[in-house]
Amino acid sequence: MRLYAVVVAGGFRRFATYRLATVAGVFTNTVFGFIIAHTYIALWDERPHLGGYDVSQAVTYVWVGQALLVTVALMGGGFEDELIERIRTGDIAVDLYRPADLQLFWLSGDLGRAAFHILGRGVVPMACGALAFDLALPGSALTWGAFLLAVLLGVVVSFALRFLVALSAFWLMDGAGVSHVSWLTGMFFSGMLLPLNVFPGVLGEVARALPWSSLLQLPADVLLGMYTGWELAGVYAFQAGWAVALLGAGRVLQRLATRRVVVQGG
Amino acid sequence: MAGSEALAGGGSHGAGAVADGGTHGAGAVAGGGSHGTGALADGGARARRALLTDGVRAYGLIVAMWVRSTMTYRASFVMTTLASFATTAFDFVAILLMFSHIDALGGYSLAEIAVLYGVTGTAFGLCDLVLGSVERLGRRVRDGTLDTLLVRPVPVLAQIAADRFALRRVGRVAQGVLVLGYGLLTVDVAWTPLKALMVPAMVLTGAVIFGAVFVVGAAFQFWAQDAAQVQNAFTYGGNTLLQYPPTVFTKDLVRGVTFVVPLAFVNWLPALYVLGRPYPVEVPQWLAFAPPLVAVAAGWASGIAWRAGLRAYRSTGS
C-alpha cells in the first residue's frame, strides 16, 4: 500500500513541476470558458429552463466543465500515451517483472495527476468564471465535499477506460487511432459538448446510462445540488459500478495481453 | 570567434552561437539586398526567392517522408482521419443539438451559422494541415532537438512546419467543406458575383490569418517553451469563437478580435456582408473587403515575430 501512496505523490509532484504549462493551460481553459459561456447564455435566452437548468446553472456547468476537463482527462493526454509507448517499444516487459500490480501502479500515478490538476487547472478558471458571471455555486461545504467524491469516482472510471485503450496497443502496436476515438467518445458522452440533459429523447437516455456521464455530467449535477440523500447515493453507486466493471475488464484484458509478450533475450 | 566563445563559455553559449550563426546567415542572405547597390539588391531578391523555393521544396520532401511513415500503420491512419473528421463534426453536432430546441441563436438561423462555421472550419483546417505542427516547437526547444534543425541548410520554419506532418488533418478540412456546402445551399442570400467570389477568398485569406496566429504562437514558445497551450486559446479557441455569430458575444470581445487579434477578418466581417447582416460593432463597411490586406499584414508581422524569436533562442545547453 505504501508503494502506491508514493506513486500517487509522485504523480502529483511530476505534474506540479510544469508551472508555466499549468498557467498556460489555465489561460486556455478560461478563454474557452468565456466563449462557451456566451453561447450557452444565447441558447438559454431562447429557451429558459432548458434541460432543467436556469441560465446561471447552465453557465456554472460550463465552468465546471473547464475545471474538470484536464482532471478527468477528457482530452486524453494522461498516462495512456506513455503506457502505449512502453507497450510498443517492449519496455512493458520490464514493468511486468516489477513487484507491483500493473493496473494499480498506473492508477496511483493517474490519481496523483488528477489531484494536481483539480487544484492547478480547476480552481483558477472556476474563480475567473465566478468573477465574470453570476454562478450558481453551493454555499454548503457538504455539497463541495459531495462534488469532490463524485470527481474522484469520475477519475477512476476515466482511468479504467483509458487503461483498456492503452492495452489495445498489444494488438494494434500504434495506439493513436484507438485513443483518439476513445477521447472523442468521451467528449461527446461526458456532456462536454452540451449537457446530457439537453440531448433529445433516446440519445439522452443512452448517453446518461453510459460510463462517460460519470466524468462530467454527474459531478456537475452534484455540485449544482440536483441530487441529495438517496439520490446522491444512487449517483455514487452508478459511478462505482462502472468503475468496478471497467477495472475488472481491464484485468481480464491485461491477462490476455501479457500472454502475448515475448521477451527477446540476449 | 563564435566557436571559441562556445568553447570558453560552455554549453549555453555554444548553443547561442549555433542559433546566432543560423539567423545571421539567413539575415545576410535575406538582408543583403537592402543595404547594397541596385545590383546587390537584385541579388538579394534573387537570394530571397531562392531561400523561399528551397524552403518550399524541403517542406515538400519532409511532408512526403511523414506521409510514407504514416502509411506504415494504415489502420491507425484511417482511424485517426475519421476521428479528425468526427472531432470537428461534433462541434457542429453540438450546434445541431442546440437547434433541436431553438430556431435562431443570437438572431441567426442554422443555415447562416453553417456558413460562418464552414468558412472558419475550412480555413482553420487548411492552416492546421499545412502549419499545425509548429505548435510542437516548444517541445523541440525543451529537449534540445531544435539545434539539429538550425544546422541544416533549410529554413527552420519550413522544417518545423513539416515536422510530423499529419495527413489525418484532411478530415478536418473535409468536415469544414461539407458544412460550408450545406450552409451555402440552404442559406437565403441574394447572390452577386462579388458575394460568390468572396466565399473562396474568405477561406484562403482566413487560412493565412490563422497561419499568422500559429507562427506568432510558435515564436512565443522560443521564450515560453511550456506555453503551447496559450497558442491553442487563440487558434482552436478562435476557431470555436468564429463558429458562432458575433451577436452572441459581448461587444468588447468582438472589438478585441476585430482590432487586436484580427480573427474577425477570417469570417465575421466578410461573411456578414455576404449574409447581409449588420456588424454588431461600429466599423466602416469597407472592412468587409479588407481580409486580403489583413492577411498580408498578419503574415508580415508573424515573419517579424518568428525571426525575433529565432534570434532570441538559446539552447538547453547540454
From TrEMBL, chain B:
Origin species: Streptomyces clavuligerus
Entry's transmembrane regions: 75-102, 114-134, 173-191, 197-220, 253-274, 286-306
Q: Which InterPro entries does this chain map to?
A: ABC-2_transporter-like
Give the record's keywords alphabetically: Membrane, Transmembrane, Transmembrane helix
Give the domain of life.
Bacteria
Name of the protein in question? Putative integral membrane transport protein
Q: Indicate whether Membrane appears among the record's keywords.
A: yes
The opening ranks of the lineage are:
Bacteria, Bacillati, Actinomycetota, Actinomycetes, Kitasatosporales
Q: Does the keyword Cell membrane apply?
A: no
